[in-house]
Structure formats: C-alpha cells, structure tokens
Amino acid sequence: MTHPWMRTTLPIAILIALAGCSTSTPSSSTSGIIDLTPPKEPTQLGSSSTTAAKTTDVTAQASDSGKVQAFMMRGMVTLGHESNSIQPCGSTQQYWLTTAISDRSALEEITPDGYQAMYAEMIGFLDPAPEEGFAANYDGRFTVKQINMISAEMSGGCKQQPHTTRAFGNEPGWAAEIKDKQVTLIQMGKERQSQAITSTSSISGKQQYTGKDFSLTLTKAQCNDTMSDALFGWQSTLEWQGKQFKGCATIGATDVTLNWIGEYQSSAQAAQNTGLTTTLVLNPDHSATTTYAYTNGDNSLVETGFWQQANQNTVQVMMTRHQGRRLNGERLFTLNGNTLITTEEVVNGHAYSLGSNGLRLEKQ
C-alpha cells in the first residue's frame, strides 16, 4: 500500500525494496466489547458446581492503541505442532491461530489425531503474519479473545447458517434459544415455552436476559459437553418459573461487521488527475484486495491483505503483500455515506499524507 505518487514515479523494484525494510508493524487491538476477565475452571454439562476464578495468561495481547474491534469468525480449525490455523467458512484464506494459554489444555483434550479439522466459532482480531516461524506463510494471524465453541464432531458446521444465542444442558436435556426478543425453553417430551425478554445487560464477562418469570445468565468460562467432543466458551444458568437449569452456552455466531463487504472504487475524475483507478474489495472472510489500474495501459499493481472494523464508522485495511512480496501497509477509512475516505497511510512503519482531499473510494 504505497503512496499514489510513489506508484507513478518509482519503479516496482524500489517499491519491493521498500516493502522489505519495515521498522515497525502497525498493531491491532480489541475495542473492549470482548473482555479478558479470568475464566472459571471447566464445568461439565449438567453439573451445578463452580470453582474459583483462575488467572488468564494470553500469549498475544492486544495493543493499547484501541484500533479495532474483535469480531466473530466461523471456520475450520486445525491444531497441531506445525499448524494452528483457522480457515473461514466458504474461504480459501488461512490465518494462523493464537489462543490463550489457559485454553490450550482443554483444546488438546478434544483435538483429534492427524491434524483433523474441527468446526469452530471464535472471537478475535487480525494482525499481519510474523516474518519467521510456522506462521510466516499464512495470510495473517488471528488472535482469539474468546472461544464461542469448537467441536470435532461438527464437520459440516460451515454448511449451517449462523445460529442465535442459545443455552443448553443434559440430565435432563434442555435448551433455551434467544430469537426475536424472546427466550424459548425446549425440554424433551414437553411443549415449547416462550417468554418475552424485558431487559438485557452485558458487563464484566457476563450477559443476562430477564423476563416476567425467567432469568438467563451467561458467564464467560470454559464449559465441556459430556455428550460430545466439544468445548464452549460460556457457562449458563437458567431460572425458569421456579426451576433452575445449568449447562453451557454459545452467543450468536453472526459476524456483525459484514456490512463493510463490497467493492469500492475511485472516481473517473480522480483517475484523470492521478493517472490510475484504485479499487478496494472487502470480502466476507475479512480478506482485502487493492488494485491500481493505470490509465496509460501499464500493468496493474495488486496488493492483498485483510480488513476489520475499528468502530461503526471506521474500517482498518491492512495490506500485507505487494505484488506477492511482504508489505505492512495500513489505512484507516472513515465512511461518509457510501464513500470510504482516508487522508493518511502507514507503510512499513512510516506515515504518508494522501493530500488535503485524501483517497476517496465509492461503493459500487
């Protein structure tokens, strides 16, 4: 992601040299919508026991810059000595996976032999892949802030639509589903019962839903399903008409940041002024491609990388490859109507102004 005037005045060989001399890497962080409160010890489905909180040690903490928000990624996860990766559903992209040390023993217990892929839903954020090690050849690095669920038995999980928030347990079997501002209790051999949600709250690793005659609490903590090889990131307690149910839970698996996906392009007037047309494509798997097409017929330049939401009005676009060579280029775009606007980019640790008008890309 080099400065437009550099593309029109410098040969590609120099651009590639610039891509190899990075002095610092723009970092990402979570906005705080997913917290890192210490998790409880794993609880077996159907068990009513809980234990004291345990300190969390995360191998790749977010930076203090607060640039991006964590988001939900659904995909197939492979865990092993030389491969810790997630491939988003419906994608060929592969991101190196960084998980919390406190989660690894539980993950090892459900991981099948032979690098068999498992369906997973994980909340986290993306960073560029490191320059060395097993992770270097991946499309980026996904740091997990929260496991929603991972299962060795759901090989077809990506074929299903993202589910809504739900709690469930065994002995006896029960489930509570949240949909359309209602909670529906499902029990084996009984009719479904529904109640309206009158209030919700989400603080310090806990989500709570209440109604006239029920209360459902989800607590961030490991939870194991004794009936399957699955690990969940939430424990649940349901109080329903005087009865109590305990089990595991998963929050809704929809990536709520996908409103950014699409193709964005510079105007014909900009092409006349700069001699090139810039096209940015943001894909559902969070991959991104920037193409620079020259009006004089020269070969187009292509950069690839990833994107993620910074806030409801800002998106971070990181270009990690320029013509296939390593690059660290960051642009923070602000949305104005249907147009993405940025006035600065950071390339290999160096900030460049894009002029008073900046770069403006209109959604196609």
From TrEMBL:
Tagged with keyword Metal-binding: no
Taxonomic placement: Bacteria, Pseudomonadati, Pseudomonadota, Gammaproteobacteria, Vibrionales
Keyword Ribonucleoprotein: no
Gene3D superfamilies: 2.40.128.640
Species, as recorded: Photobacterium profundum 3TCK
Descriptive protein name: Lipoprotein
Region of interest (Disordered), residue spans: 28-61
UniProt keyword terms in alphabetical order: Signal
Composition bias, Polar residues: 44-61
